[in-house]
């Protein structure tokens, strides 16, 4: 007869074997069995740290005081490790791993050595690692880290600014001429036709005395308002970074009234600092609970003209507060005429992990839900405001 608890017992056994396998490390495969892909990543992170107990570790201070490894772009092992443990382990485990890294094994470059940070090559991996460990830094190191964050953010802004601006630039209006001599607006056919009188048969060339250009349609979006709500839970860090930068680009264009708010169990309105995404990011406190309903309600208090307002909610939709309150606030926004967009991811990959049930319920209420790159978000917003 089949035991009805068999599957449940097998799952418990596998979980216990995995835990022991992670505790005992490589070499215990015969006793504890193999690992899933995620458990293997967890073991790699644990080995990176605790293999130092036996010497020969990477980026480790050996017993004679010699230190190997660096934070250069070719060997970003410490930032990679920091990012991985925040993705793979619960908060209590993360705190213990960070404590052991700093106190037991003296892996302190990221949080105690401003010279190391000054030499580091700015990139998004390092940016995320700094944001995850800034609470461990003293003021001197924090200053060096902020300089590094600024360089990385400037690189990201250069990448995103063009995508956002193109979406709002407007289409070519071929019915009207323009006095603005911009190469991409050059009207070749009209220029040749109206300068044919200057054709030289001997050289077979047309001398252009008067070039002609297309005008571009200016989108009347000055009165539109965009309210961006960003979940600052640890799993949303990529989206937090891209949201801060995208909001700053929107603001710099002076085409919309932009609000930026971050939230966990409380809402922090950072609109007055939107011009500087570095200041925004350095105020982010990753982790903690999530009250999406409260954030959506706060957005409703900012709305000036519902018919010309877009609310962008960026979250994994894992609601820590009462779901009924979230759905009520979400419904009221839609019924008032606000255009509402929920994004489970806003980054260069747009690969979401989210609560599908909450997302589906918001769709039923009239929200648009998905995942986008910053360029796709800009195109989506531009399409809405030009109607």
How would you characterize this protein structure?
The protein contains 16 helices and ten strands. The strands form three sheets. A six-stranded mixed sheet has the order 7-6-5-8-9-10, with helices on both faces. The chain has a two-stranded antiparallel ribbon with strand order 1-4. Strand 9, helix 15 and strand 10 form a beta-alpha-beta unit. It is of the alpha/beta class and 387 residues long. The chain has three domains: 145 residues, no CATH class; 41 residues, no CATH class; 161 residues, von Willebrand factor, type A domain (Rossmann fold). Helices cover 49% and strands 13% of the residues. The termini are far apart.
3D shape: globular
Q: In sequence order, what are the helices and strands, one letter per element?
A: HHHHHHHHHEHEEEEHEEHHEHEHEH
CATH superfamily of the largest domain: von Willebrand factor, type A domain
Instruction: Average the pLDDT over all residues and give the rounded result.
Output: 80
Strand order, main sheet: write it out: 7-6-5-8-9-10
SS field, number of helical segments: 16
Count of strand segments: 10
| CATH fold descriptor of the largest domain | Rossmann fold
Q: Report the sheet with the most strands, covering strand number, pairing sense and barrel closure.
A: 6 strands, mixed
| Overall number of domains | 3
Straight-line N-to-C gap: 67 Å
CATH class assignment of the largest domain:
Alpha Beta
Please give the share of residues in helix: 40-55%
Strand % is 5-15%
Proper CATH architecture of the largest domain:
3-Layer(aba) Sandwich
If you compute it from the alpha carbons, what radius of gyration comes out, rounded to the nearest whole angstrom?
Answer: 27 Å
């Amino acid at each position: 007869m089949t035991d009805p608890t068999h599957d449940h017992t097998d799952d418990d056994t596998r979980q216990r074997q995995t835990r022991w396998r992670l505790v005992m490390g490589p070499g215990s495969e015969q006793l504890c069995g193999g690992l899933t892909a995620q458990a293997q990543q967890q073991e790699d992170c644990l080995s990176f740290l605790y293999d130092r107990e036996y010497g020969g570790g990477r980026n480790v201070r050996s017993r004679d005081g010699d230190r190997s490894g660096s934070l250069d772009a070719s060997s970003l092992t410490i930032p990679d490790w920091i990012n991985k443990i925040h993705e793979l382990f619960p908060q209590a485990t993360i705190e213990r791993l960070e404590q052991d890294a700093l106190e037991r094994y003296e892996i302190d470059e990221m949080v105690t050595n401003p010279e190391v940070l000054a030499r580091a090559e700015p990139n998004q991996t390092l940016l995320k690692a700094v944001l995850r460990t800034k609470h461990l830094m003293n003021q001197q190191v924090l200053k060096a880290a902020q300089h590094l964050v600024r360089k990385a953010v400037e690189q990201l802004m250069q990448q995103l600014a063009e995508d956002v601006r193109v979406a709002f630039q407007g289409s070519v209006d071929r019915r009207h001429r323009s006095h603005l001599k911009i190469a991409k607006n050059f009207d070749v056919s009209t220029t040749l036709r109206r300068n044919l009188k200057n054709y030289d048969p001997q050289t077979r060339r047309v001398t252009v005395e008067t070039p002609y250009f297309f005008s571009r349609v200016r989108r009347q979006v000055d009165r539109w308002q965009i309210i961006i709500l960003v979940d600052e839970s640890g799993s949303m860090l990529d989206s937090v970074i891209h949201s801060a930068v995208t909001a700053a680009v929107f603001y710099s264009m002076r085409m919309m009234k932009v609000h930026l708010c971050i939230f966990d169990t409380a809402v922090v309105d950072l609109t007055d600092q939107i011009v500087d995404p570095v200041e925004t990011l350095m105020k982010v406190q990753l982790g903690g609970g999530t009250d999406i309903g409260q954030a959506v309600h706060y957005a409703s208090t900012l709305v000036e003209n519902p018919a010309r307002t877009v609310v962008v909610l960026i979250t994994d939709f894992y609601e820590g507060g009462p779901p009924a309150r979230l759905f009520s606030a979400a419904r009221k926004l839609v019924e008032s005429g606000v255009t509402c967009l929920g994004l489970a991811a806003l980054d260069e990959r747009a690969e979401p992990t989210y609560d599908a049930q909450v997302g589906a319920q918001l769709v039923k209420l009239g929200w648009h839900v998905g995942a986008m790159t910053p360029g796709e978000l800009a195109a989506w917003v531009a399409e809405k405001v030009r109607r």
